[in-house]
Amino acid sequence: GAQRKQALLHFASRRAMDIEGLGGKLIDQLVDNVLTRTPADLYTLDAAALANLERMGEKSAANVVAAIEKSKRTTLPRFIYALGIRNVGEATAKYLALHFGNLDKLRRANEESLQQVPDIGPVVAQSIVRFFSEPHNREVIERLRACEVKWQEGKDLQLAAASAINGKIFVLTGTLPHLTREEAKHKIEVLGGKIT
Known about the structure:
Elements lengths: L1 H11 L11 H9 L6 H4 L4 H5 L6 H13 L5 H7 L7 H11 L2 H6 L2 H4 L7 H12 L1 H12 L7 H9 L6 E2 L10 H10 L3 E2 L1
Parallel strand pairs: 1-2
C-alpha cells in the first residue's frame, strides 16, 4: 500500500502530472478504499465516488475530477518523469524525451542506446530497460493512453522543449558561427523568446 501511495503521489506531483488537489490524504483514502491502484485508475474516477470520501464535498470532488481531466494534456518529459522510473529525475526525463522524441522509441531502447543520452550511465540505463520490460508498467502506460493522456512528440516536442527559452529576452551580440543574425533571431522568436 505504502509503495502504491508513494507512486501515485509522485505521479500527481506538481513537476510530474500536476494534478491539483490530489494530495497525500486524498491518495491515502483512494488507495485504502481500493478506488485507485495505479495512476491509470485516477482517470476513471468520478465525482460521485470521490464525494463519498471523508472531508470531500461535492465541490471539492468536482474540482479534483477537473484537475485530473486537465492533466491529460501533458508533455513527454513530464510524463516520463511521472512514471517514477528509478533514478530518472526531471532533467534525465527531459533528455530522454528530446533524444528519443517519442515514448515508443524510448520503450524499445536498449542499455547501449540509452547510454548515448547525456547524463545516462549504465545504472540508469538498466533501471529504464527494467522498468519498460515489466508487464505491469507496460499495461499502466497503455491504460493511460487509452484514457487519452496526451503529449506532443517528434518535431513538436523538440520545438516545445527548446522553448525553455519561451518568454526569455535575448540580446544578440558579436558574430554567430553557424547562423546569420536574422536566422538566430527567427529561431528565438519561433520558440517564443524575445529579442531586444
